[in-house]
Write a structure and sequence with these properties.
Layout lengths: L1 H6 L31 E10 L4 E10 L4 E8 L2 E8 L4 E6 L4 E6 L12 E3 L2 E3 L3 H4 L10 E8 L2 E12 L4 E10 L14 E12 L2 E15 L31 E10 L4 E10 L4 E6 L14 E6 L4 E6 L4 E6 L7 E3 L6 E3 L2 H4 L5 E11 L2 E10 L9 E8 L18 E8 L4 E11 L19 E8 L4 H5 L2 H16 L6 E8 L3 E8 L17 H13 L4 E3 L12 E3 L6 E3 L13 H27 L1
Antiparallel strand pairs: 1-2, 1-13, 2-3, 3-4, 4-5, 5-6, 7-8, 9-10, 10-11, 11-12, 12-13, 14-15, 14-26, 15-16, 16-17, 17-18, 18-19, 20-21, 22-23, 23-24, 24-25, 25-26, 27-29, 27-32, 28-29, 30-31
Helix pairs in contact: 5-7
């Protein structure tokens, strides 16, 4: 295949070794040469008379962006060659075999297809004329008047070229459409029509004659689709230079994912929540009837608490809950130093952005969205020694996402991930929707149904009625502020605070439950001990009764130092088993949720520091 590319190259004139019996430097009439655009693409039909062979090449030339490309089909084998002058790489791809080879462009003999010149130490493609090897420096083309080729009125130029690399002397005649007697479809003055080459070369010490015709078809003075310069999807090129670092994914987010499994010919959906700082993940999905499910086939909610190593599986339709240690090898578990201990994946690991040989692949349009793409290779797949190719698609910087909230993270927005295992003809596509870079609302991580028959305690305390304006300003954010204070003063993890509500009578009441310690032992070493339920309750009662229970009410855009606070009414805490019927405020607006994500970032860090001290002491 590389020999074919080399044969297509008409190189510059050299003085030594020329066979004067074939041709010599011509002399004759000079004429203004046709001008060629800085960008073009063209199909070249190559007829090798000495080989009785026809080959077609689709050639792309881009002087503006310093790159070129050819696509060749030879005996049914496709080769796509990418000339990247900025990175000094020749990237050769066999798309049907998903193979890729990367070579040093400056040292490769195929560089002469588009030419190679150095500008300020940087490799650069030849000019358009030079890339077609017409009008090169140190060459002489003699104008030979008008002619007709393929029924097209043309003007022709003749030259004698010598290619030292193959010891080949060539008579070369160029034909361009005649601007005086022919109108092109693209309304440009003149386009290349044909090159006729006759000559002699030496191969294995023996000379032989050759004759080639190169017909230029569908010449366009532009690149119809610039993305043709990007390497094809799903093909990793080992050794390729990475020209753009992988995005960083936010440490907290939520998303909806569509999973396309070509093995089972199945589409499934899942909603995911991830909070790295709280070590919590949540998944909402419906088990497939094609695989056994010990939890049934109703929609399920699964919460993984990596603080304790416990997984909770809840069936919201029935209201039951199952719990177990988090299983090793689940998609949110990463291998710890001790492989027998579960560890929550980082956000980067969650998307497998630690793959080997990851390189930037350019901009691709997928789902009608321009996306930055990266491709990488892993040498294992699902525990087997199988090579797999991973491709990541992220929102391009010129696109905005309506889900991004004020005060949320400003990091990479993943839109799709594809995995191909070519040895098994297996592929998976993960389409990502509604990706929100903000901490999920911990109030939605409800495991209380798992403690229906386990120990828990219910409490109610009051705050002054004067705080109502502050509470009503953003009710959901206020409840989150209460949750942060409760976890701080009781030294329990957020999952152990449930059914948090605010009710009104002559005072404002805060009602909630504190759940017992984890129901099973998880496979973790850190935080292996938890604050017992009775000890947590004792801390809470003491803080309220001693006028020490403070609620910092988070506010969007308000610094920690300026955050308003409320102190619980002393001696107002009561414990109950059954509730009275009290009016409970309900409902919140989309604006409230936006404020929640923003203020959680502002104040969460301060309370988090306190939480860390209590949890890890």
């Amino acid at each position: 295949m590389h020999v074919l590319l080399a044969t297509l190259c008409l190189l510059h004139l050299a003085a030594a070794g020329i066979d004067t019996t074939i041709c010599t430097t011509p002399y004759g009439q000079q004429h203004t040469r046709p001008s060629l655009p800085q960008q073009f693409e063209v199909h070249v039909e190559c007829n090798f008379l000495d080989l009785n062979t026809t080959t077609e090449v689709h050639e792309y030339y881009d002087d503006i962006n310093n790159r070129g490309e050819v696509r060749v089909s030879d005996f049914g084998v496709k080769l796509w060659a990418y000339y990247s002058y900025d990175t000094n790489e020749l990237i050769s791809i066999l798309p049907d075999k998903s193979l890729c080879y990367v070579e040093d462009l400056q040292k490769n003999s195929q560089r002469y297809l588009f030419g190679y010149q150095s500008k300020n130490g940087q490799g650069h493609i030849f000019s358009a004329s030079g890339a077609l090897h017409f009008g090169e420096a140190n060459t002489v083309e003699v104008f030979q008047g008008a002619d007709v080729v393929r029924g097209i009125n043309v003007q022709k130029w003749y030259s004698c070229l010598y290619w030292a690399g193959m010891d080949a002397t060539m008579n070369v005649t160029w034909y361009f459409s005649d601007p005086l007697n022919w109108e092109t479809a693209l309304a440009v003055p003149s386009t290349p029509v044909r090159v006729h080459v006759r000559g002699r070369r030496t191969k294995n010490g023996s000379p032989y004659d050759f004759e080639h015709y190169y017909d230029f078809l569908h010449f366009k003075p532009y690149i119809e689709d610039p993305q043709n310069f990007e390497t094809p999807n799903g093909i990793s090129c080992p050794g390729r230079k990475n020209t753009k670092p992988l995005p960083v994914v936010a440490p907290a987010y939520s998303l909806i994912i569509e999973i396309v499994d070509n093995v089972r010919s199945q589409i499934s959906f899942m909603k995911e929540y991830y909070d790295q700082s709280m070590k919590l993940t949540k998944f909402m999905y419906k088990p497939s009837h094609t695989t056994p499910s010990i939890y049934g086939y109703n929609p399920l909610t699964e919460i993984h608490d990596f603080n304790t190593g416990v997984a909770y599986v809840i069936d919201p339709l029935i209201g039951n809950c199952s719990f177990r240690p988090i299983e090793h090898g689940t998609f949110d578990d990463a291998t710890a130093k001790n492989p027998h201990l579960v560890r929550m994946r980082t956000s980067q690991e969650f998307f497998y952005l630690n793959s080997q040989d990851v390189t930037y692949e350019g901009v691709k349009t997928v789902r009608n969205i321009d996306m930055d793409t990266w491709v990488g290779r892993r040498n294992t797949f699902q525990g087997f020694d199988l090579n797999s190719t991973w491709q990541w698609y992220f929102k391009l910087g010129t696109w905005s996402a309506s889900q991004q909230r004020v005060g949320s993270y400003s990091m990479g927005t993943p839109l799709m991930l594809t995995i191909d295992v070519h040895e098994l003809s297996v592929s998976y596509t993960y389409n990502i929707y509604n990706f929100i870079q903000a901490r999920p609302n911990l109030l939605d991580f409800d495991i209380s149904s798992c403690f229906m028959d386990l120990k828990r305690r219910k409490f109610d305390f009051k705050i002054p009625t004067e705080a109502r304006d502050l509470v009503d300003r953003n009710k959901e954010l206020f409840k989150y502020s209460v949750l942060m204070s409760l976890t701080y003063y009781t030294a329990v993890f957020p999952l152990r605070i449930s059914n948090l509500r605010v009710v009104y009578d002559d005072h404002i009441h805060i009602r909630f439950e504190i759940l017992d310690v984890r129901p099973v032992t998880g496979d973790v070493t850190v935080n292996s001990t938890e604050t017992p339920l009775d000890v947590a309750a004792q801390h809470l009662v003491s803080k309220v009764n001693n006028n020490e229970f403070v609620i910092y009410v988070m506010q969007p855009g308000v610094s920690l130092q300026e955050t308003p606070y409320i102190v619980a009414v002393p001696d107002s805490i009561t414990e109950f088993t059954y509730e009275s019927e009290l009016a409970e405020f309900k409902g919140y607006s989309p604006g409230a949720l936006g404020g929640l994500s923003a203020a959680m970032i502002v104040v969460g860090g301060a309370l988090g520091a306190g939480l860390s001290f209590v949890f890890f002491k």
